[in-house]
Amino acid sequence: MNALVFDSGALIGIEKGKVKALRFARDARKHSTRILIPASVLAQVLRPGPRAARLFHLINDPATAEVRPLDGKTAVAVGYLLAETHTRDVVDAHVAVVARIEDAIVVTSDERDLSHLLPAGWPIELV
Fold first, then answer.
1. pLDDT tens, per residue, the chain with 127 residues
2. For residue 86, what is the DSSP state?
3. For the sheet containing 65-68, what is the strand order?
4. Which end of the chain is less enclosed by CB atoms within 10 A, N or C?
5. Which helix H or strand E contains 58, and what residues bound it?
6. Distance CA 45, CA 33 (A)
């Protein structure tokens, strides 16, 4: 796995300056590991204000972070995953779909939100 997918909890951790979340971002930069941020996650978390500076710094670093759109093809995959898992959270499903497409590790603050959307044993790192 050569990428990390950050969910809302990971971005909130960066926004709040939590050491573990910042370490994931720093280590990704250091090791040229891509950070994938589903656009739905960014929309859920990003708000104007001084605390957003860390997030803007992250998303404006094209060498490290990529915002992944919720385009038509991805939206279909998200909808199918929601139907398959009998769940409703579009943002969490978008995270899981991006992780599956990119074979990426999920970085989250709450493993329960995502574990039921991913195959058993999928790597999830906690911040």
1. 689 999 999 999 999 999 999 999 999 999 999 999 999 999 999 998 888 899 999 999 888 999 999 999 999 999 999 999 999 999 999 999 999 999 999 999 999 989 999 999 999 999 9
2. T
3. 65-68, 34-38, 3-6, 105-108, 124-126
4. N
5. helix 53-59
6. 22
Tokens of 39: 């656009």
For residue 127, give both structure tokens: 């911040």
Please give the model's pTM, rounded to 2 decimal places: 0.95
> What secondary structure letter does DSSP report for 1?
-
Closest CA to 37 of 54, 51, 20: 54
In this structure, the number of other CB atoms found within 10 A of the CB of residue 92 comes to: 27
The C-alpha atoms of residue 18 and residue 40 are separated, in whole angstroms, by: 22
Place of tokens 């796995």: 1
Q: All domains of the chain, ordered by start, with CATH?
A: 3-126 (3.40.50.1010)
